[in-house]
Specification:
CATH topology of the largest domain: Chitosanase, subunit A, domain 1
Largest sheet: 3 strands, antiparallel
Structural class: mainly alpha
Mean pLDDT: 90
CATH architecture of the largest domain: Up-down Bundle
Low-confidence stretches: 7-23
């Protein structure tokens, strides 16, 4: 009888520990976790953990073929002039801070939207963007559009699938690179064909492994994304260590470069 009671007590202890772990685990919208997410993205997008230094970053993509060239890439998540998000960000910036130094470039951004053209932009646009790197309104505009277009929708989708912080980040990072609709949603659909999500009763590790497989396959379709280390030696590494909550310390590599968050 004592053995049965001891076993029952042991099982209750394990169940309580698991319940407490789930209770105290934090989602990616926790300020500390979100900062970690931004550092992880910055390591891949800018080869730096200092993501707040990237508001003024901008360059024209001269690599790859015309189909993959996204024109100008700038800001904390790589808004691009081809994929509409740069235009939307600059328009929002103009909404909260009218007649700023980027306002004159809105017509040109509208004209090149959907193409890799630099017509009407050029060095003057680059200079104006870089000069605004420390501007509070400019930073607010980038934060707003990052959250509206990428972070919040990705987080909502991941939470709906029963994923913790690591899975939430995997969704967000996929959306940043490939877009939310037609990017993340396609990758997720491919993963769900291979495994059930936790919300469907599936195993979280098995599902995330299928998601990362699908993400890597999507990356390999584009010449500019042939290096898949942001999946292989970063997210996959965290998954193999069962770090579903993205707890620190974190060590990873992107493009062969080592990074650490203590």
């Amino acid at each position: 009888m004592g053995g049965v009671l001891a076993y029952t007590y042991s099982m209750l202890t394990v169940a309580l520990a698991l319940a407490l772990a789930l209770t105290f685990s934090k989602d990616l919208d926790d300020p500390v976790k979100k900062d970690i997410a931004m550092q992880l993205v910055s390591s891949a997008e800018n080869s730096s953990l200092d993501w707040k230094a990237q508001y003024g970053y901008i360059e024209y993509n001269v690599e790859g073929n015309a189909q993959e060239n996204r024109g100008y890439t700038g800001g904390i998540i790589g808004f691009t002039s081809r994929t509409h998000d740069m235009l939307e960000m600059v328009k929002y910036f103009n909404k909260i801070y009218p007649d700023n130094t980027l306002t004159p470039f809105i017509p040109a951004l509208q004209n090149v939207d959907g193409s890799s053209s630099a017509a009407g932009l050029g060095s003057k646009y680059v200079k104006a963007w870089k000069a605004l790197g420390a501007d509070t309104h400019f930073r607010r505009a980038q934060d707003h559009e990052r959250d509206r277009v990428y972070f919040n929708p990705s987080l909502a989708l991941a939470k709906g699938d029963g994923l913790r912080a690591l899975g939430q980040f995997a969704y967000y990072d996929a959306a940043v690179m490939h877009g939310f609709d037609g990017g993340l949603t396609i990758i997720r659909k491919a993963a769900l064909k291979k495994a059930k999500s936790p919300a469907q009763g599936g195993n979280e590790k098995v599902y995330l492994s299928a998601f990362l497989d699908a993400r890597k396959a999507e990356m390999l379709k584009e010449q500019g994304h042939q290096d898949t280390t942001r999946v292989d030696t970063a997210q996959r590494k965290f998954l193999n260590r069962n770090n579903f909550d993205l707890d620190t310390p974190l060590d990873w590599r992107v493009y062969g470069d080592p990074y650490h968050i203590g």
